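RECORD CONTENTS
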Amino acid sequence: MKNTAYIVTLIIAVSRAYGQVCNTASTLRPAKFSLGVAPIIYVRGGDLGLLVDGGVGITRNIDLSFKLVINNGPTYFGGDFEFLLLSGMPMISLATGMHSAGNIGVDGTLNITFPIQRIVSLYGGLDANIEFYNQETLFPLWFFLGIQVMARKTLGIFMEIDGGISSPAPSILDLGINIYF
């Protein structure tokens, strides 16, 4: 219990606002849920944040997820639909959605995942935003690489690196958990 309290306190304490991918191309089955949490480290400047996300399966190949990023800047809140385009080896999904973080934005993610023995999944792809500011439109673009290890049937531990390709996309490191219900 002491270790759990320490980990939760650490996660809350490390609370810029970009929501990253933090999952594989797999979609949730209908009426199944997920809940995830991850500290976020912004490589340039050493800023920290906390990502909390949740999802629900809509159909066998579509899920809906919401993300909240808390930090010392504007709070990020967004949602997206993820569509499984190809199952098997590899799995490919496309997600599209919207967010608000002091501005309004549109998201798009192409995720390619290589599942290994139902325990480990290597994933990567491109994550793009269109950000609408007062008099300006920006197009931050990231490549991402990640690994998710299923520690239990309902618990995934992941690590993800998001490399900023275009300005103002910062490079980000995420390490967290996803719980599946």
